[in-house]
């Protein structure tokens, strides 16, 4: 069965495209506007703009951020993908 996928730190969208090709719906999230724009363009070029989207957001604030998903379903995913995102974060004392 096809699942709903979320990519954290989508960069230029290469992995978001792969996820969209192999899932029912994919979302790429990145804090950098240029990365989100590149992911949107990559999805259009691949013909997947109707099955995936890219959103600008801080991945550390996702639980607090209300983001509208184009498929109208809740902010719930079957698979979460991270490639070179979390290891770039540092521990903030608190």
Quick recap:
With 94 residues, the chain is α/β, with parallel strands linked by helices. The protein has helices spanning 14-21, 33-45; strands at 4-8, 25-30, 52-56, 79-82.
Task: List key phrases describing it.
94 residues, 4-stranded parallel sheet, 4 strands, alpha/beta
Listing every helix as H and every strand as E from the N terminus to the C terminus, the arrangement reads: EHEHEE
Percent range for β-strand residues: 15-25%
* Spatial separation of the terminal alpha carbons: 42 Å
Q: Which outline best applies?
A: globular
Major sheet size, sense and barrel closure:
4 strands, parallel
Low-pLDDT stretches are none
- Number of strand segments: 4
The average pLDDT is 86
Percent helix among the residues? 10-25%
Derived from helix and strand composition plus strand pairing, the structural class reads alpha/beta
Q: What is the C-alpha radius of gyration, as a whole number of Å? A: 13 Å
The largest beta-sheet arranges its strands as 3-2-1-4
Number of separate helices: 2
How would you explain this protein's 3D organization?
It contains 2 helices and 4 strands; from the N terminus they run βαβαββ. It has 94 residues and is α/β, with parallel strands linked by helices. It has a 4-stranded parallel β-sheet, with helices on one face. It is globular and about 45 Å long.
Task: Chart the SSEs and their pairings.
Layout: E1 4-8, H1 14-21, E2 25-30, H2 33-45, E3 52-56, E4 79-82
Parallel strand pairs: 1-2, 1-4, 2-3
């Amino acid at each position: 069965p096809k699942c709903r996928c979320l990519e954290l730190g989508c960069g230029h969208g290469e992995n978001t495209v792969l996820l969209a090709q192999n899932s029912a719906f994919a979302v790429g999230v990145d804090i950098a506007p240029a990365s989100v724009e590149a992911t949107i363009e990559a999805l259009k070029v691949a013909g997947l703009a109707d099955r995936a989207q890219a959103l600008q957001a801080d991945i550390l604030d996702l639980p607090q951020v209300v983001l509208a998903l184009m498929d109208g379903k809740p902010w719930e995913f079957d698979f979460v993908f991270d490639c070179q995102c979390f290891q770039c974060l540092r521990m903030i004392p608190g």
